[in-house]
Structures are given as structure tokens and as C-alpha cells.
Amino acid sequence: MLFHLANGFAAHGYTVDLVLVQAKGELISQLSSQVKLIDLRAKDEYRSLPGLMRYLQHQQPSVMLSTLNLANIIAVLANMFVKTGAKLYLREASPPSINIRSRLKKIIEKPLFKFCYSRADGIIAISQGVATDLSQYTGIPFHRITTIYNPAISADLAPKMQKPVTHPWFAAGEPPVVLGVGRLVEQKNFFLLLHAFQRVLTHIDARLVILGEGEQRSMLESLAHHLGIQERVSLPGFVDNTYSYMRKARIFVLSSLWEGLPNVLIEAMACGCPVISTDCPSGPAEILANGKYGVLVPPNDVDALAKAIVDVLTGKRKIRVEPAWLDQFKTETVVQKYLEVMGLE
Predict the structure, then answer these.
(1) For 88-97, how does the pLDDT look when each residue is reduced to its tens digit (9 = 90+)?
(2) How far is residue 96 from each of residues 18, 178, 189, 300, measured CA to CA in Å?
(3) CB 3.0-4.6 Å disulfide test: which of 134, 143, 180, 264 passes with 210?
(4) Preceding peptide of 282 cis, ω within 30°
(5) pTM
(6) Count of C-beta atoms within a 10 Å radius of residue 219
(7) Distances from the Cα of 242 to the Cαs of 8, 49, 63, 269, in angstroms?
């Protein structure tokens, strides 16, 4: 999402540096040539402070936008120590009270959150749910937090979703495919999806494809074998273009325990794929207009998720998304809102 923003700012004619704790990952290639990449080469956010201070001292930016809560704390401290006069805006991408960290870290970080966030020129949350959680967690008045949704629908989505899918289960005449996308970690709760899918198979023949990689791969594979559904479940790993899969899938399912604003839900909707999501904090209810544009089920409810999948696969529940609803998630719309909030337009 930050790459979309950086590219969008540059397209508006601004000089943009993208400053990273570590410049690595599959997405680096998506950065516009108009954006300068700055690699602090730090081991983590805490140890990036000296490098960020040096960057601010040398470059003297007029505006700085930081994201992710620990990086935001470092950005505030660096800006205070160097005193460049740069206006600082903090973007919060997930509910800080829910993020998995040790109890000791939370004890240390909570007062830091309140101290640092209150000194920013502006705070931007990616959903109303994140804004509410951040306000309650830090004590910062809710009215000081602006909600701007993610630029999840970029210009390259349409051409990318038209590209072919090589996975054999998406061929014509094959059983319908239920799709999940995300890191294979606790937050995404793919265990719930596997259990629900086992129950789906007692009603209708289908296939489940989960795109993504992560620490829970072996556990998910073991669970699929334990449930006896391993022949109908595929975990292809990280896929660069998920949009073509979303276009071909019969249903997209988000099974998360928590989110900030799940971009994959928005992307699936933009690809024309019906969506089902747990009504977790936060984001899904906002994206789906409280169930108008997709099915919401309680978190960790296997029966409710299985029933929702069966209802959509059998046509008992039909989902239609109004194109105008998706405009608020388009890159150009979001970039314009950021520029206005940061006083640049």
C-alpha cells in the first residue's frame, strides 16, 4: 500500500524518497523509477533510529509519512532529535491493542505510543475500527485521527486479473474453487478455513486453494491430512499475481482473527469474486457495508463459515457489488486524500 502511495505522490510531481529499515522483498520491483529508494540497512525498527536521523539531517524533507506502529515511534523520535521542521504524519495500519507482542514490550510501548503519537502533525488510520482502537489504546482524542482507506485498487489490477492461471484446478469443467490469500500465520486463522472446508465437502464437491507462505505451512498441511481433505487442498506458496486467481475463483474467504483493513477483500471484490469474511476487528464490516456486499460470519465459527460457503456455492446467497462503492479504495482517490490531509494540495 505504501508503494502505491509513493508512486502516486511521484506521479503528482512530488519528489519522493521511500525510506526502509531494510530494502528487501518481492515488492521492490513495483516501485516507480521516479521514487528514490533509501535503505537504512538496520536490523530492526529500534536500531534504525541513527540512520533515520542522518537521513533527515542530510535531506531535510518538508513532509514525512511513516507507517506501522514501531516505525512510527522511531519516526517521531528522529524528527524530535534532528528538528528539521518536517511535518510528520503517522499512518496506523492495525489495531495496536491486538498486535501480538510480549507483555513486557506492551508495557514499554504503550506510554511511548501516547507520547509519540500526540506529537505528530496528523494521524491517519486505515479504517474506523483502527482509529477507534488507537484512540482507546493511546488516549488520543478520536477527532484527531483521520480515516483514509487503503489504495487497494491500483491501475494494474484490471490487466493483471486477465492473465491466465496455470493451476489445473482453475480449468474449465473443474469443481468450484474456494480461495484464501495471506501469510500462513496465526492472525489469518487458516485452521478455521480448513475445518469449515471439510464440512463444505459433505454438501458439495469443491477445491480449496490458499495462496501465501509462512510459519504455519507444515501445521496446515498436517491438519489437511488429519481432516482427510489433502487431495482437495492446495498451498502453492507466494504468488506474485493473485488477481488472476481471484477472477477465476468461485468464492474468496477471509478467515482472520483480526485485521486493520484487509486489502485482499477489496481486491477480490474488484476482481468480481464473491467474498465471505469473518466479522473480525477491524475492517471487513466497513469494506462490506455491514454485509451488503459480502457475507459476514462470526470469528472462529466453523459452522457459520461452512454454511456461508455452501450457500454461495449453491446459489442460495447471491452477492453483487456496486462499482461506485469501490471508488473509495482506488489509488488515485486515496492519494488525493493523503495529499489534502498533509497540506500538499
Answers:
(1) 999 999 888 8
(2) 24, 31, 19, 21
(3) 180
(4) yes
(5) 0.91
(6) 12
(7) 22, 35, 33, 13
